[in-house]
Amino acid sequence: MFSRYYFSAPSGEKRYLCDSCDRTYSNRSSLKRHMNYECGKLPAFPCTLCSYATKRKTSLASHYYRKHVGEDGALPPPHEPDYIVPE
């Protein structure tokens, strides 16, 4: 039950180092996820409304709602790809 916490470094210490890019992580599972899905890979998820691209689909979804959805929840018109939500 507590096995996932067993590999965590104490008090946020980052002791798991990626050999390829020197990023550090506080637990082994985060390092493994980084190595499998991020390290050395090009962004695979481009935004269709701007030049943003990311390696994670969830990051693209966050970007989309943060940058392209209006305060009233309205989506940008599909025929206007350069639509900018007023701040």
What does this protein look like?
By secondary structure, this protein is an alpha+beta fold. The protein folds into two domains: 33 residues; 29 residues. It is built from three helices and four strands. Strands 1-2 form a two-stranded antiparallel sheet. The N terminus is likely disordered.
The SSE string, one letter per element, is HEEHEEH
Termini distance? 46 Å
Report strand order across the widest sheet: 1-2
Number of domains: 2
Number of strands: 4
Mean pLDDT: 78
Give the uncertain stretches in residue-range form. 1-6
Characterize the quaternary organization of these chains: single chain
Q: By helix and strand content, what is the structural category?
A: alpha+beta
Tally of contiguous helical segments: 3
Biggest sheet details: 2 strands, antiparallel
